Amino acid sequence: MGLQQRGVLSLDAPVPDGVVDAGTAPPVSRVEALTTEGRAVLVTLETDAREPDPGLLAAASVYAWLGVTLFRVPEAQADGVRQVLDMVASIQGVRPPALARRGLA
After folding, report:
1. 7: three-class secondary structure by DSSP
2. Cα distance between the two ends of the chain
């Protein structure tokens, strides 16, 4: 799974073949070790919030930056996490921004 193929799964989704399940909110050191090996990594992030949870979105951005390719999240958080994954990919330069505007003063 390449950087452009990051994805979001529901909490009850099984672990796809060839993907390592790092667990729920694993330590960064574990994620770094798995991604350094070049393996596709799945991280599960949980919350009871019905609205986008800033803490969960922040954690998703850090894990995405480290190279996590799949995220299992509650349905209420899925759209927000997809946006975070797009943002991280744009910052890393692996995809163009959704919208580019020039700021002229």
Report:
1. strand
2. 41
Residue found by looking up tokens 């193929």 in the block: 5
8 burial class (0-12, 13-18, 19+ CB within 10 angstroms)? buried
Please answer whether residues 47 and 56 qualify as being in contact, where contact means their C-beta atoms are separated by less than 8 angstroms: yes
Model pTM score: 0.86
Taking Cα atoms as reference points, which of 5, 3, 8 lies closest to residue 72?
8
State both tokens at 53: 């949870």
Q: What is the pLDDT of residue 1?
A: 45
The pLDDT assigned to 5 comes to 75
Q: Which residues of the chain have pLDDT under 70?
A: 1-4, 105
Closest CA to 79 of 92, 60, 100, 101: 60
